[in-house]
Structures are given as structure tokens and as C-alpha cells.
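Schema walkthrough. Field components (list of strings):
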Amino acid sequence: MDIEKLLEEKSAIVNKELERVFSGNIPNLYDAIDYHIETGGKRIRPVLALLTCEALGGNSKKALPFAVACEILHNWLLVHDDIEDGDRVRRDKPAMWVKYGLAHGVNAGDLMAQKVYESILNSELDNDKIVKLMEAMVTASVKTAEGQAMDINLRQNNEPTESDYMNTVIGKTAYYLSVPMVGGAIVAEADNAIKALEEFGRNAGPAFQIADDLLDLTEGKGRGEIGCDIKEGKRSILVVHCLSKCDIDEKARLLDILNKPAEETGTEEVLWVKELFEKHGSVDYARKKSQELVEKAKASIEGLPEELREILNYFADYLIERKK
Amino acid sequence: MDIEKLLEEKSAIVNKELERVFSGNIPNLYDAIDYHIETGGKRIRPVLALLTCEALGGNSKKALPFAVACEILHNWLLVHDDIEDGDRVRRDKPAMWVKYGLAHGVNAGDLMAQKVYESILNSELDNDKIVKLMEAMVTASVKTAEGQAMDINLRQNNEPTESDYMNTVIGKTAYYLSVPMVGGAIVAEADNAIKALEEFGRNAGPAFQIADDLLDLTEGKGRGEIGCDIKEGKRSILVVHCLSKCDIDEKARLLDILNKPAEETGTEEVLWVKELFEKHGSVDYARKKSQELVEKAKASIEGLPEELREILNYFADYLIERKK
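Field assembly_structure (string):
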């Protein structure tokens, strides 16, 4: 199976549909959303929805509105996350709220959230299935917002434990990674696959987040520089591990750097933190942890059809090996 | 019919349900939402949903989840509006985003938006009706976000016409005022009433907004001072009317005051604007316009059952006569 090619084909279908959904002509609303959506993204979530549906014997055309809803969800969360984190750059361009202003940024995100549900309602499916898809989406969105609140809280926490970290990232990433696959299964009437797909997300989501934590130190996540997470004081897995290993003076300096405003953190301080992570083996620890979670994700879908396993295993590897 | 008493009884039921919906224990999320909800509000929208359902022969218990969804919608929009407008005070208390921070403010609003749909999904109704309610809610929310974008744009507009103003306030207020009544009619299986109820909202919503514009000059809308709209540069009906009447020097000064940052606008300037509105008859014009719209709202429901008309007429008068 040529998954790269499938990804390309399916993401083109999704892009076309996204264009249609956001084709209104109110200035600073639909154009702002188009601007954000065109900054890129690999459409992994909607493609996962379509491929899961097909691999489970369903008609992926009927899953397209739900798949698109998943991509809208993802992008709405990015738009609002950038505001919440004070991130000014997204995929090497000004974040939407920076280009269009805070007021339009919040409001355009709110419209996108509604378009998630509008898209699902436009599915050519019976109402029982539509309600099931709605329930899956609401649950995922509620869990994600809860995880986000925990994440914001974690940044004020000077004694974060690995269990705090894992609870937060499971909330923030697991459900909204698994919901596309769950929706694909609902459309394919393969409800018996749902539990395994949720378990897959529960492991692959945090693996993805840890890979993201690592990317901040190496590639910089499309923000033109490395160490943004350090400047923002995020309690990444690296921070959590390092705090448990370093001595009292290192801990004091690390927390001082993390807790000061992002704009006051200099490059030297970022590099000092990076070296501290390396000194205490936090980078290796994070890599290993991410790999372990990917293995657990793969193990959780052993009972699913081979074609679906092949696809999900590919994405699991992709999630932690990506460069941006 | 003792509508005051009904309002009290029904709003108590709604408050109890709201408490249940937001009973999670993640710090800075559910407590932040409780804080906002407990700042008050008269629960007019959910009560309208319940009373409309009953007056059309439906079982209002079955409409309760939708009624609560309408109140959550209203409060989610208030939470995000305060951020978008930079309003720091809501109902004489610090706005939620001021008390809990911008990040939690955006995120808690997002969670509330999900709870709108979760609440509808929890209705004890068949899935066909649930889908109908979902569709009504999505349409109202999309129209409201479109209206909000138009409103933010209008503030940059130095030549706003009454038609710009009306299009904006219809988008921003009409749909989300009528959606509780429409939902009540759907639950009562009185779909033939929907068109009149939408027309009612199309007139009563803007009437409410104009009354709100006027309140800013007299009572101050619970923000501890009058003239916040002037400081924020809102293009109220007063501004739109006054700009069409005043001379070139007055226009220049009015726009100068409206367009400078809110924190740079002094009390004297606010009072000068207020006097200018009075000089050109803008206050009288707004009062008359609001009254006319209320009359149109009442006329649009002439074909509906008497009990329902009595309730809606009461609320129409209430909307423009309220003091806060």
C-alpha cells in the first residue's frame, strides 16, 4: 500500500471541501479562516478518518463531512491555542490573530467550532448515525478543552510530576487524535473497532506530544526559532524529567527562566536549558518514552484488520519521526 | 398570566441544570464558568424556550436541555465578547478573562460552546428531533459569529450607514434571540410556528440592541460607568444617526474620540459625545426606532396562539424597557 500517495489524494479531496465550507464573503472572517487553513498542515486527521472508514469496509464518501469536521476542529484549536499561548507565528507566517487582530481571531475560531457541527449535520447518513458522530465529536472536544485547561494550569506548577504531564497530554491530544478514526468506524458500522481505536489514540496522542516537545529543541515547530516552549514556560516532558533529576541550583535557574515572560528570555538562556536537558538525559528519556508509547499504540490495534493496522502503524511512526 | 412569577420559577430550574452541566472539578475551567454564570443574567432565552414549548402544547421538560443549551450559548458569547471588546467588567464584577486570564477565558468559552451541543444531545427526544434542534442551533451560532465579525469591522468604518448597522445587528442578535423559541416549537412539534418566531427575533433582536446602545448612555450596562461603547468606538445606532446629521467639524471630533484607544478617552469627551447625540436628535431617533421594531415584532406573531403572543409581547416590551 502506497500510503504517501493515498495521503496526497485524500488530502486534496479534503482541501477542496474545506474551501467550499469557508467560502463566505464577510471580510476578516472567511478570508481569515482561509488564510489560516492555507498556511498548510498535512490533513492527517481527516485522511485517517477516510482511510479508517475504507479499511473497515465503509464508504468513505459518506465519511467526508465528518473527516472535514475533524480538520476544522484541529484548525480551530490551533487558532485559539495561538491566542492562549501568545504564539505570534504559525507555520512560518503570522498567526491568524496577529494578522487579523485578537477580536477577529477569537471570533473566527468560534465560527470554525460551529462549522465542525454544521459539517457533520451535512453528512448523507441517517439521523441515528449523525447523532452518534455528534456524540463522538462533543466528547472529544470537551476532553480536549479540559486537557487544555490542565495544560495552562501546569505552566504555573513548579513541581510537575510525570503523572500530571501524562494526564494533561492525554486530555489534550488523545481524544482529538482518535475521534477521526472513531468517526470512520461509526460510518463503516464497525462499532466493535472503536475501543481499540480509542486505545490507539490514548497512546499515539501523547507520543505525538512528546515528539512535539522534542521538535521545539531541534526544528522549532515552524516558528522560525527553537526553544519557544522554553520561552513560554511550557512544562514539557523534558522539563518534568529534568526537574526530577537536577540539583537545587539548576532547578532554581530552570524555573526562573521558564517562569519569566517569553519576551524576556534570551537565546543564551534557551541554550542553557537545552544543555541542562541533555546533561540529565531528559532528551534521551523523552525519545524513549515516545517510542514506547508508539509501540503500545501499535499493540493496542493488533485485533483490527491488517489493512487498517498497516495504515495506523504508518501514521504512528510518522507522528514521532516528522521534522515539523 | 403572571409572567414575572413564571420567569422566576423557570429560571430556577434552568440554574439548577446549569450547575449540573458545569460540575467538573478542573481548576480554572469549571470554576471559571461557574463564576461567570453566577454573575447573574435573567435566563430570558431558556425561559422563552420553555414557555414557547408549553404555549404550543409541548412538554417543556423535554425542551429543558435545549433551553439550557441556549443559555450556555448566550454566556459563551458573553465570555468571548468581553475578550474581543476588551471589556474588563461584566455585571459589576471582573470579566471572566480578567479574573482567570486570557488563556483560560478563551478556552473556557470553547468548552462552553461544546456544552451547547452536549446538552442538546442529552435531550430525551428521538434522533430526528435532536438533529432538527442541532441544525437550528448551528444556524443561529454561525449567523451570530458572522454578525460579530461585521460588528468588529463596523468599528473601523468611518461612514457607517443605517443599513450597515441593521445588517450587523440582525446577524448578531436576531438568530440567537429567536433560536430558543424555534427550539421550543420543534420540541412541541409546532413547526408551522417557526417562521413567525424567526420574524419576531428579526425585529426584537435589533430592538434589544438599540435599547442596549441607549442603556450605555444612561445606566452603563453594569460596567460601573456610562459611555463604554463610546470609549470602545462602537458604531451604535446613535453614532450612525449622529454622523449623518452633524457638521464637518463635529464629525471630525466625534470620529477622533471614537477611534482613539478606549483608555485614552476621558469623561469630558464622553459627555461631549452624549450632548452631540442629544443635539442632533439621535437619542430620540434611537428610542423611536426601537419602539417601531418592537411593534413590528409584535405584529409578526399575530397568527400565533394567544397565550404565546401574551408571553412574547411581554418579553418584547421587557427587552427595551429594562434598566440593565
